[in-house]
Amino acid sequence: MASVVLSEAEKLYIVHGVQEDLRVDGRGCEDYRCAEVETDVVSNTSGSARVKLGHTDVLVGVKAEMGTPKLEKPDEGYLEFFVDCSANATPEFEGRGGEELGTEIANTLYRVFSSESSVDLKLLCINPREHCWVLYVDVLLLECGGNLLDAISIAVKAALFNTRIPKVRVLEDEEGSKEIELSDDPYDCIRLNVDDVPCIVTLSKIGYRHVVDATLQEEACSLASLLISVTSKGALTSMKKVGKGSLDPESIFEMMETGKRVGKSLHIALQKILEEEESLGTSRQKVGFLG
Amino acid sequence: MAAVTMRLPVARKAVVPSAPRGGEKHLVAPGDTITTDTGYMRGHGTYVEEEKLIASVAGAVERVNKLVCVKALKTRYNGEVGDIVVGRITEVQQKRWKVETNSRLDSVLLLSSMNLPGGELRRRSAEDELAMRDYLQEGDLISAEVQSVFSDGAVSLHTRSLKYGKLGQGVLVQVSPSLVKRQKTHFHDLPCGASVILGNNGFIWIYPTPEQKDEEAGGFTTNLEPVPLSDREVISRLRNCIVALVTQQLMLFDTSILYCYEASLPHQIKDILKPEVMEEIVLETRQRLLDLEG
C-alpha cells in the first residue's frame, strides 16, 4: 500500500489531535472527506462509476457477459472481481508491484459480496444450468490517498446501480439447438436492485480512539484497522481486521457501532446523489477525466 | 454525529483574470513560437528550430537583455544559493544525510554543515559520525538553507544558525515550488496564533508558536507536550486555507495566507475544503490583495 514517512513529532501531533476529535484537516473522527461520484464515464461497459475521495481516485467498470452457471448454484449468475493497481497511483505499483495489493482487495470484495442478500443473483439467470449473466467488475486505482476500500466499495455500488443488462430470450429450435435473441430496443434492459449492496467502512485505530476515512498520514500512525461492510439498513455482513497491531475486544465493539452508524449515513448520501444524477437524465453534462 | 457529503463533479471554471495590470506575462506552451528574431540568445526551456525560438516547457517567458528563457510553472524545485528549504531525511550515510526536497536529486546535508549542540566550532570526530542517527533519523523534518549547488543540480544544505534545525510538532503541506513567493524572510509568526515556514521548495510547515524565543537547542530536543486545542484549530484552519489558495493557483506569502485566514473565519474549519466555500474565500482574498496593491 502506498505509504508516507512521517517524523515522530508529526505522528504525535496527529495522535493527540485525534484524541481531541480535531484532525489535521479540521474533520471530526467520524467525518468523511467530500466525495465526488460520477457514473457512466466509460462508454464500452455495461455500467461504470468514478469516485474521488480527497486524493483517492477509483474507477470501476462492470461488463455483463454470458456464461454458464456454477455447478452448485445452477439458477444464479455470479460476480467476478478484478482489481488493477495502476502505476499512476504510486511508483511502487510499477510492473508487478501492485499485484499483491490487488489480489488482497479483490479477495476482500469477494468476501463482502459473498452474502446471498447483497445482489439478487437469480435475476442474472437466463436458462437454469445453461446460460446466465456473469458480471465482471473491474476496479482501477488511479490515485492512492488513503482509505482505498471505502472508495472502491462506493464506486462498485454506484457502478452496479448504473449497470444496464440487455434483455435476452433463449429460443429452442426443433433440433434442440438454442438461439439467443436480443431485444430490438437498445433501452430495454434489466437494472440491478442495489438497496442491499453493502459498503465498506474502514475504522483505523489511532491512539485510544478510532477514525473513519483516514488519510495516508493518519494510516501511517495507526497500527490496526477494522474493515466492516454495512448495508443501508445497518446490518453488518462481514468484518476483517488488518494491520500488525492488536485490538481490544471492547474497542472492536465500539468500532462496530461507529461503523454501523457511519455506514448508514454513507448509504443515505450515496443513494441521494445517485438519484439526483439519474433525475438529470440526458441533460447531465458529463465531466469525465478532462473536466 | 457522522457527516458524509457527496456531490456530483463540476467542470472546472476558467478563472477570469482580474483587471490587467502593467507587465502582462507572456505564457507559452511547449511548441509555441516565442520569437522569430534571431538576435536573441536562448536560455533554459527553449530551443531553436528553423530560425525560430520555440518553447520546450509550459510557462512564462522571461527576457533579460538578450537572453530569453522560459520559466516553467509546474516543475521540481531548482535550488538557488540562499533559499530556505524544508526537507525530510531519507538516508543516513557516512558523514552526511540525504534530504528529500522535491527536487530532481536528493539534497545533501553534510555533518560539517550541521550545528552540533554544545558548541559550534568543534571538529567533527569519529564519535560524532557514529552518533549521527541520534541527531537526525530517517523521516525527520528539518529546515535548512541552501549553501551551494553541485554541477549536476543537487543541492547542499546547511543548518549553521539557531533558527534552522529539526522541526517538532506541526503540519506539513506540499505545494508546487512555483507558488511560493520569494521574500526577505520565510519564517513568519502570524498574528492569528501559529507560525509558518514557507520553504522555497514548496514544503510549507505550520507549527504552534513556541513561547520562549531564546531556546538554545537549535532544534534538537523536540517538545513532545500535547498542543492545546485552540492552537490546533488555528493550525488546521491555516492548513486548509493554504490548500484552498493552492487549488486556486494563488501565490503564497504571509499576507495572502493571513487574508485567506481572515476570510475563512465565518466558516467551519472542515467546510473550507468544499469547492464553493473555497472559491468564495479565495475571491475575497484576491480582492483584498488587489486593493492593497492599487
From TrEMBL, chain A:
<dbReference type="InterPro" id="IPR050590">
    <property type="entry name" value="Exosome_comp_Rrp42_subfam"/>
</dbReference>
<dbReference type="Pfam" id="PF01138">
    <property type="entry name" value="RNase_PH"/>
</dbReference>
<dbReference type="InterPro" id="IPR020568">
    <property type="entry name" value="Ribosomal_Su5_D2-typ_SF"/>
</dbReference>
<dbReference type="GO" id="GO:0000467">
    <property type="term" value="P:exonucleolytic trimming to generate mature 3'-end of 5.8S rRNA from tricistronic rRNA transcript (SSU-rRNA, 5.8S rRNA, LSU-rRNA)"/>
</dbReference>
<keyword id="KW-0539">Nucleus</keyword>
<keyword id="KW-0698">rRNA processing</keyword>
<dbReference type="GO" id="GO:0034476">
    <property type="term" value="P:U5 snRNA 3'-end processing"/>
</dbReference>
<dbReference type="InterPro" id="IPR036345">
    <property type="entry name" value="ExoRNase_PH_dom2_sf"/>
</dbReference>
<dbReference type="GO" id="GO:0035925">
    <property type="term" value="F:mRNA 3'-UTR AU-rich region binding"/>
</dbReference>
<dbReference type="GO" id="GO:0071035">
    <property type="term" value="P:nuclear polyadenylation-dependent rRNA catabolic process"/>
</dbReference>
<dbReference type="GO" id="GO:0016075">
    <property type="term" value="P:rRNA catabolic process"/>
</dbReference>
<keyword id="KW-0007">Acetylation</keyword>
<dbReference type="GO" id="GO:0071028">
    <property type="term" value="P:nuclear mRNA surveillance"/>
</dbReference>
<dbReference type="GO" id="GO:0071038">
    <property type="term" value="P:TRAMP-dependent tRNA surveillance pathway"/>
</dbReference>
<dbReference type="GO" id="GO:0005730">
    <property type="term" value="C:nucleolus"/>
</dbReference>
<protein>
    <recommendedName>
        <fullName>Exosome component 7</fullName>
    </recommendedName>
</protein>
<comment type="subunit">
    <text>Component of the RNA exosome core complex (Exo-9), composed of EXOSC1, EXOSC2, EXOSC3, EXOSC4, EXOSC5, EXOSC6, EXOSC7, EXOSC8 and EXOSC9; within the complex interacts with EXOSC2 and EXOSC4. The catalytically inactive RNA exosome core complex (Exo-9) associates with the catalytic subunit EXOSC10/RRP6. Exo-9 may associate with DIS3 to form the nucleolar exosome complex, or DIS3L to form the cytoplasmic exosome complex. Exo-9 is formed by a hexameric base ring consisting of the heterodimers EXOSC4-EXOSC9, EXOSC5-EXOSC8 and EXOSC6-EXOSC7, and a cap ring consisting of EXOSC1, EXOSC2 and EXOSC3.</text>
</comment>
<feature type="domain" description="Exoribonuclease phosphorolytic">
    <location>
        <begin position="196"/>
        <end position="261"/>
    </location>
</feature>
<dbReference type="GO" id="GO:0000176">
    <property type="term" value="C:nuclear exosome (RNase complex)"/>
</dbReference>
<dbReference type="GO" id="GO:0000177">
    <property type="term" value="C:cytoplasmic exosome (RNase complex)"/>
</dbReference>
<dbReference type="GO" id="GO:0034475">
    <property type="term" value="P:U4 snRNA 3'-end processing"/>
</dbReference>
<keyword id="KW-0271">Exosome</keyword>
Automatic annotation (TrEMBL), chain B:
<dbReference type="GO" id="GO:0034475">
    <property type="term" value="P:U4 snRNA 3'-end processing"/>
</dbReference>
<dbReference type="GO" id="GO:0003723">
    <property type="term" value="F:RNA binding"/>
</dbReference>
<dbReference type="InterPro" id="IPR025721">
    <property type="entry name" value="Exosome_cplx_N_dom"/>
</dbReference>
<dbReference type="GO" id="GO:0000467">
    <property type="term" value="P:exonucleolytic trimming to generate mature 3'-end of 5.8S rRNA from tricistronic rRNA transcript (SSU-rRNA, 5.8S rRNA, LSU-rRNA)"/>
</dbReference>
<dbReference type="InterPro" id="IPR048565">
    <property type="entry name" value="S1_RRP4"/>
</dbReference>
<dbReference type="GO" id="GO:0000177">
    <property type="term" value="C:cytoplasmic exosome (RNase complex)"/>
</dbReference>
<keyword id="KW-0698">rRNA processing</keyword>
<feature type="domain" description="S1 motif">
    <location>
        <begin position="80"/>
        <end position="160"/>
    </location>
</feature>
<dbReference type="GO" id="GO:0000176">
    <property type="term" value="C:nuclear exosome (RNase complex)"/>
</dbReference>
<dbReference type="GO" id="GO:0071051">
    <property type="term" value="P:poly(A)-dependent snoRNA 3'-end processing"/>
</dbReference>
<dbReference type="InterPro" id="IPR026699">
    <property type="entry name" value="Exosome_RNA_bind1/RRP40/RRP4"/>
</dbReference>
<comment type="subunit">
    <text>Component of the RNA exosome core complex (Exo-9), composed of EXOSC1, EXOSC2, EXOSC3, EXOSC4, EXOSC5, EXOSC6, EXOSC7, EXOSC8 and EXOSC9; within the complex interacts with EXOSC4 and EXOSC7. The catalytically inactive RNA exosome core complex (Exo-9) associates with the catalytic subunit EXOSC10/RRP6. Exo-9 may associate with DIS3 to form the nucleolar exosome complex, or DIS3L to form the cytoplasmic exosome complex. Exo-9 is formed by a hexameric base ring consisting of the heterodimers EXOSC4-EXOSC9, EXOSC5-EXOSC8 and EXOSC6-EXOSC7, and a cap ring consisting of EXOSC1, EXOSC2 and EXOSC3.</text>
</comment>
<dbReference type="Pfam" id="PF21266">
    <property type="entry name" value="S1_RRP4"/>
</dbReference>
<dbReference type="Pfam" id="PF15985">
    <property type="entry name" value="KH_6"/>
</dbReference>
<dbReference type="InterPro" id="IPR004088">
    <property type="entry name" value="KH_dom_type_1"/>
</dbReference>
<dbReference type="InterPro" id="IPR003029">
    <property type="entry name" value="S1_domain"/>
</dbReference>
<keyword id="KW-0694">RNA-binding</keyword>
<keyword id="KW-0271">Exosome</keyword>
<protein>
    <recommendedName>
        <fullName>Exosome complex component RRP4</fullName>
    </recommendedName>
</protein>
<keyword id="KW-0539">Nucleus</keyword>
<dbReference type="GO" id="GO:0071038">
    <property type="term" value="P:TRAMP-dependent tRNA surveillance pathway"/>
</dbReference>
<keyword id="KW-0597">Phosphoprotein</keyword>
